[in-house]
Design goal:
The protein is an alpha/beta fold and 234 residues long. The protein has 7 helices and 7 strands. The protein has one domain: Glycerol-3-phosphate (1)-acyltransferase. It has a 7-stranded mixed sheet, with helices on both faces. The protein starts with a helix and ends with a helix.
Length: 234
C-alpha cells in the first residue's frame, strides 16, 4: 500500500513538474529578449513553486543550516550531487546563479531551452581540456557580473551517502577569479533517489559551510579542503 501511495503522489508531482516546465519555457520565450535578471526571476519563481509542489504532493521538506556563511559577493558554490533536487533548488537559492552542466542537457525539449536562457555553462565531457578552458572563461565572466557559479565537482550523481572524487575545475575557477569557494552538503538522495521516479517523504537537510579563501593554496588543495568539509558535514 505504501508503494501504491508513493506512486500516486509521484504521478501528481510529475504532472505539476511538466506543467511548470512548459509554463516557464513559454514565459522565457516571451521575456527571452529582456536582461538576464528578468529571465532568472522567471525560472527561479518556477523552481520555488516546484519545491513547494514537491512538499505538498510528496511530503518532502527542506531544512537549511549555515545561512550565516553565505558571502555577500559572488562565489563558486561546490555541492555534492545525489539527486535531481539540487539542480532545481540551488539555482534559485543562490540566485543569481549560473550552473555548470553537461551540454547534452540543452538538447532536452523545453527543459534544455530554459537552461540555455539561464546562461548555464554547458560543457562537453568528451573534451576535458576544452571543458576546463570554457569553465574558466565563462565562469570568470559570470562572477565578474555578480553571478554565482554552481558546480557539482563529482561530475555525476552519487547514489550513496559517501562523497565521490572531486574535479578541480571549480577551485581553479574560484582562484583565477579571486573569489571564495562555498562548500555545500545535502542528503537529497534520501527523498529523491537517483534512478527512481518515486519520492520518499522526509526532510532534506542542506548545510552551508564556511567560505574558503582561495588566495592561498593551489586548486587541488582547495578542492580537497572543500571535499573534506562536505564529506563530514552530515
Amino acid at each position: 500500500m505504501t508503494k501504491i501511495w508513493q506512486s500516486i503522489r509521484a504521478l501528481l508531482f510529475y504532472s505539476g513538474l511538466i506543467l511548470l516546465v512548459l509554463l516557464m519555457t513559454l514565459s522565457l520565450c516571451i521575456v527571452g529578449f529582456l536582461p538576464f535578471r528578468y529571465r532568472q526571476l522567471c525560472v527561479t519563481t518556477g523552481n520555488r513553486l516546484l519545491i513547494s509542489w514537491l512538499r505538498i504532493t510528496c511530503g518532502v521538506k527542506v531544512k537549511l543550516v549555515g545561512l550565516e556563511n553565505i558571502p555577500e559577493d559572488a562565489c563558486v558554490v561546490l555541492s555534492n550531487h545525489q539527486s535531481t533536487w539540487e539542480t532545481f533548488f540551488l539555482q534559485y537559492f543562490f540566485v543569481p546563479a549560473s550552473v555548470i552542466l553537461k551540454r547534452e542537457l540543452l538538447w532536452i525539449p523545453f527543459f534544455g531551452w530554459g537552461l540555455y536562457f539561464m546562461r548555464a555553462i554547458a560543457i562537453k565531457r568528451s573534451n576535458p581540456a576544452g571543458a576546463i578552458r570554457q569553465v574558466l572563461k565563462q565562469g570568470k565572466q559570470r562572477l565578474s557580473q555578480g553571478i554565482n557559479v554552481v558546480i557539482f565537482p563529482e561530475g555525476t550523481r552519487i547514489r550513496t551517502e559517501q562523497v565521490g572524487s572531486f574535479m578541480t575545475s571549480g577551485a581553479a575557477l574560484a582562484k583565477a577569479a579571486g573569489v571564495q569557494i562555498l562548500p555545500v552538503r545535502h542528503n537529497a538522495g534520501l527523498c529523491w533517489p537517483a534512478g527512481s521516479w518515486l519520492k520518499k517523504p522526509g526532510t532534506i537537510t542542506l548545510s552551508i559551510g564556511p567560505p574558503i579563501d582561495t588566495s592561498e593554496g593551489n586548486p587541488r588543495e582547495l578542492t580537497e579542503q572543500a571535499r573534506q568539509w562536505i564529506a563530514t558535514a552530515l
